[in-house]
Design goal:
Layout: H1 11-32, H2 56-70, H3 76-81, H4 85-94, H5 124-134, E1 139-143, E2 151-154, H6 155-171, E3 179-182, H7 188-199, E4 203-206, H8 216-230, E5 234-237, H9 242-245, H10 247-251, E6 257-260, H11 261-264, E7 281-286, E8 296-300, H12 301-315, E9 323-325, H13 332-345, E10 349-351, H14 354-359, H15 362-370, E11 375-378, H16 380-389, E12 405-408, H17 415-425, E13 435-437, E14 439-440, E15 447-450, E16 459-463, H18 464-470, E17 483-487, E18 491-492, E19 497-501, E20 514-519, H19 531-537, E21 538-539, E22 542-552, E23 555-561, E24 566-568, E25 571-573, H20 575-583, E26 593-599, E27 606-613, H21 619-637, E28 643-647, H22 662-670, H23 681-730, H24 734-752, E29 756-759, E30 769-773, H25 779-787, E31 792-797, H26 804-812, E32 816-818, H27 823-838, E33 842-846, H28 863-871, E34 874-881, H29 883-886, E35 899-903, H30 914-932
Parallel strand pairs: 1-10, 3-4, 3-5, 5-6, 9-10, 9-11, 11-12, 12-13, 27-28, 29-35, 30-33, 30-34, 31-32, 31-33
Antiparallel strand pairs: 1-2, 7-8, 14-15, 15-18, 16-17, 19-20, 20-22, 21-22, 22-23, 24-25, 26-27, 34-35
Length: 946
């Protein structure tokens, strides 16, 4: 008889609940691993994964059995996060009664449909501003983790919360173009952080939160790699994991601020209105499967909106639809397809957390039914979970007939799964035509191919032997193991094209397997700070998806990842099918099998290796499992396996979304590190702490070296400054004084070890010149004295005349002092500049007039360009790079930074008109902007450089 959990439990109650839960866990383990020794000795502190051997799907089964045993609900987060049985029990006891009881659902509960979508927005913020202005009180997102009390987010609330985050980020020093990492679970804080970062004209970087302590080491090391790659200085996260992610500070040298959304939000503050352009980066999507340097896909507002509009044309989705999603927000299908799609097209979005689905798969279907949803989406594994883990009793009263699209993508689509899902849920109204296999990738924003609306899955049966030997996808009527089934993912979306090519990039005919390449306006410009991988991505104007497939009647059939294919004995071995077959063996853990090629150190050839997770310990059973794996391999690929490695549960490495990381598994195998995945959490914390300590020591050593260099530079400057002043003050002849000053500066540069590089045109021409440069630091004048010709006269602001030492120094160097603020004196100064140019004297002018602490090129004053146009003198643009970083605002010591001076080609004025002067100004700014890599502040404080 079921016993409900008392929520005012005594110690005795807790003990009995723990004993019953432990019995359920042992019973499930005995069913899954009947030969496993010592099951009865597994206690409350034993690891659910490493000791009980329960993977993600087995956790779902454990939760269902606990609910049946106690007549209650296991909290969603506990199903995914709990490390031990005691963790599960503590979550049960601490959950409020409402969260641990069955919730009656009222039907229907459809959200009000959108009135309209914003008319052709060019940026995401333009779309949000339109909604907040036109329909601020309408529900945009409904957070439905709590079935009884869903939490609405209106468009008005979202904009208010986002702008509060933006104000707080700007106040904390976030500047245009900075990256802000967001490690938050599904919830309103994520959206406030994401759009708030955009309102601050910064770039959001969604990261997946840590799931369990048993995975913390690999998780934080991968996150640290991403933070280093994108150079994020701010991480927004949630309070519960803040102590955990503080380890990232020891692993990432750039990260300065770790805060919650509540801590950064400033509701009373204001900030400059952003001038966001379609070509600005909207966010960085990090591909989850990378094993080396992280690959951050750069996606602009134009990329995203073009992709969303093309997908809308392919599907006909409107504001009248309703989307139910549990997909994580760090994943492109969940963030772009569901969330940004809801923003751009105005349909309501019902959002569940991934935990809600993983702990109770039926809740996904129940939510679709409750809100009469017409759209949903998930990877193939989710449909498989529903087939196997939802009890018939949970389907009573459900109606899926309104569902128009159940998108299946983000991983290999199984024909077997599609057919079984359609058959299983047809009795509750699911139409087969709603099942919609699609194909896309982050490098194309999201979607690339879609099938016709209402057609349903199109499955191609091809001859297995011909395909594995030659890549020829010949149709066959056979339905046995001699046939392969491949699902069509449809045709390219509007404005995009795909092609199939061989290893040399030569296009292949239909029904011939090759690499899938694409092009179109949704295509990324590359990976952030990763030129090597960006170069690999592009094949001329085409982008290499890294996937294999073939075309048939214009439709795309995806057959696998190019890097996963194993070529052996004339066969092209696709690992996915073999992995799925081996995973069906009783002793193997489904989803815990990986096939990959590995180098044979003795022969130098490539071998086929299979890792199989299993709890089996008895040698005869393990030997029999290896034999059956080999028999399966011979049946499916015609070849035996070179090595079958039986490994403990959780050894096979996976991405955050559950995809197998074959390259990482191969690397771990070849380096003998397969056991690393099974380390206890305390061991992982210790390793992270040691790694962080080493990183901190390295960082402190670098800081010390930087400080010592700064002290050295200050001492050199202090020692040479008096001699420089005396040399300039006492040396006769202007050119001698200028050459002497330049020599002192170059000597100081050599003494301090500064790298000073000068790039200039081969033929500088003759006649008077007006050199115009950017102004970023007090060091600019010294650098230019050392690099420009000695016959150049510097134009300085009149404020320097207030200092006796500077006034004497500048006058002896022949500087011209000008007034920047008084109009009459400025006009007189302009006349003096023209007179000097007519006297064949070259000038240097800081065209910005001054500098400020924040990076960016200020507007140029017209005086120098008008003088050049009036006298016919050529203008030479000069970009000074590195001085701002060498002497940053607020720094007490200079930093060791390489300096560069790029002198452009002389620009000759067309005539003496104002128009000619403006043209000189524009061309000079363009040259300098190209090289300084700082924001263009002429268009406003929130604009970025191209």
């Amino acid at each position: 008889m079921n016993a409900a959990i008392p929520h005012s439990s005594t110690i005795a109650d807790e003990a009995s609940i723990l004993a019953r839960t432990l019995a359920v866990a042992r019973e499930l383990t005995a069913e899954l691993h009947p030969e496993m020794p010592g099951i009865d000795r597994l206690g409350a502190e034993a690891s659910i994964e490493r000791d009980f051997g329960l993977d993600s799907l087995a956790r779902v089964e454990l939760a269902l059995r606990i609910e049946q045993a106690f007549g209650t609900s296991v909290p969603d987060a506990a199903v995914a996060e709990a490390d031990t049985v005691r963790d599960l029990v503590q979550a049960l006891l601490s959950a409020p009664p409402a969260a641990a009881s069955a919730v009656p659902i009222q039907k229907p509960a459809r959200i009000e449909a959108g009135a309209a979508a914003p008319p052709l927005p060019t940026t995401l913020l333009e779309a949000l501003d339109w909604h907040a202005r036109e329909q601020a009180d309408r529900t945009h997102i409904l957070l439905a983790d709590r079935e009884a009390n869903p939490e609405p987010i209106t468009f008005g609330d979202l904009r208010t919360e986002a702008t509060a985050v933006a104000a707080g980020l700007i106040r904390r020093g976030v500047r245009p173009g900075d990256t802000v990492a967001i490690m938050l679970p599904t919830g309103r804080e994520f959206f406030a952080a994401f759009y708030g970062t955009l309102y601050a004209h910064a770039i959001p970087v969604p990261l997946y939160p840590p799931a369990r302590p048993s995975q913390i080491e690999s998780h934080l090391r991968r996150v640290a790699g991403i933070l280093a790659n994108c150079e994020a200085r701010v991480l927004l996260t949630f309070a519960r994991v803040k102590p955990l992610v503080y380890l990232l500070r020891t692993l990432s040298t750039q990260l300065k601020t770790i805060a919650t959304v509540e801590e950064v939000s400033e509701t009373q503050a204001t900030f400059p209105t952003p001038s966001v352009q379609p070509t600005d980066t909207a966010f960085l999507q990090y591909t989850s499967g990378s094993t080396g340097q992280p690959k951050g896909v750069v996606l602009t507002h134009a990329n995203l909106l073009t992709n969303l509009n093309a997908m809308q044309r392919a599907t006909g989705i409107t504001a009248a639809d309703c989307f139910v999603s549990w997909l994580p927000l760090y994943h492109d299908m969940g963030l772009i397809g569901a969330c940004l799609g809801a923003l751009v097209f105005g349909f309501p979005l019902v959002l569940m957390s991934p935990f809600a689905f993983l702990s109770h798969p039926a809740r996904w279907l129940r939510t679709i039914d409750r809100y009469r949803a017409t759209i949903t989406a998930a990877p193939n594994f989710a449909y498989e979970v529903c087939i196997n883990k939802i009890d018939d009793k949970e389907l009573a009263g459900l109606d899926l007939s309104p569902l128009r699209f159940a998108f299946n993508g983000a991983e290999a689509v199984s024909a077997h799964t599609l057919e079984r899902f359609a058959e299983r849920f047809a009795r509750i109204g699911l139409r087969r035509s709603a099942l919609t296999p699609v194909y896309g990738l982050a490098e194309c924003a999201l979607g690339l191919t879609f099938p016709p609306v209402d057609r349903g899955p199109l499955i191609d049966r091809i001859d297995r032997d011909a395909f594995l030997r030659s890549g020829l996808a010949s149709s066959t009527d056979r339905v046995d193991s001699a046939a392969l089934t491949v699902v069509s993912c449809g045709r390219p979306i509007s404005g995009h094209a795909i092609r199939i090519v061989d290893a040399d990039g030569t296009p292949l005919p239909e029904r011939t397997q090759g690499r899938i390449e694409f092009q179109g306006p949704s295509a990324t410009s590359g990976y952030l700070n990763n030129p090597k991988e960006t170069a690999r991505l592009f094949d001329g104007k085409w982008l290499d998806t890294g996937d294999l497939g073939y075309l048939a009647e214009g439709e795309l059939y995806v057959t696998g990842r190019a890097k996963d294919i194993i070529i052996r004995g004339g066969h092209n071995i696709h690992p996915q099918e073999l992995e799925e077959a081996i995973g069906q063996l009783p002793e193997a853990r489904k989803g815990g099998v990986v096939v990959f090629p590995a180098a044979d150190r003795r022969s130098g050839t490539e071998r086929v290796v299979v890792l199989v997770e299993t709890r089996e310990q008895h040698p005869p059973v393990r030997s029999d499992l290896i034999s059956r794996v080999n028999r399966l391999a011979v049946d499916l690929i015609g070849l035996p396996i070179d090595e079958v490695v039986l490994v403990p549960p959780r050894t096979v490495l996976k991405t955050s979304s559950g995809k197998i990381r074959r390259a990482a598994c191969r690397e771990a195998y070849e380096q003998g590190k397969l056991s690393a995945a099974g380390r206890a959490p305390w061991v992982q914390f210790a390793r992270l702490a040691l790694r962080g300590f080493a990183t901190q020591c390295t960082r402190r050593a670098r800081r010390l070296a930087t400080s010592l260099w700064g002290v050295r530079a200050v001492l050199v400057a202090a020692c040479l400054a008096p001699f420089l002043w005396l040399t300039v003050a006492l040396t006769p002849g202007l050119l001698r004084r200028r050459r002497g000053a330049a020599g002192f500066v170059r000597f100081a540069v050599r003494l301090t070890g500064i790298s000073l590089r000068v790039l200039e045109p081969k033929d500088a021409g003759r006649g008077p010149r007006v050199y115009v440069s950017n102004h970023a630091s007090y060091l600019d004048a010294l650098v230019l004295i050392a690099t420009l010709p000695p016959d150049v006269t510097f134009v300085a602001k009149r404020e320097f005349e207030e200092s006796f030492l500077l006034k004497t120094l500048f006058k002896r160097l022949g500087c011209v002092f000008v007034e920047r603020h008084d109009v009459s004196e400025a006009v007189a100064a302009a006349g003096e500049l023209q007179a000097r140019l007519r006297a064949q004297e070259s000038l240097h002018v800081f065209a910005e007039g001054t500098f400020w602490r924040d990076p960016g090129l200020l507007p140029f004053h017209m005086g120098a360009f008008l003088a050049a146009a009036a006298t016919g003198a050529a203008v030479v643009p000069v970009a000074v790079c590195g001085t701002r970083a060498m002497l940053p605002d607020g720094a007490t010591l200079p930093q060791p930074t390489p300096l560069e001076v790029i002198i452009g080609e002389p620009l000759v004025p067309e005539d003496a008109s104002w128009r000619a002067a403006v043209k000189l100004r524009s061309m000079s700014r363009a040259h300098i902007l190209t090289h300084v890599h700082e924001p263009d502040l002429e268009l406003g404080p929130m604009s970025s450089a191209p």
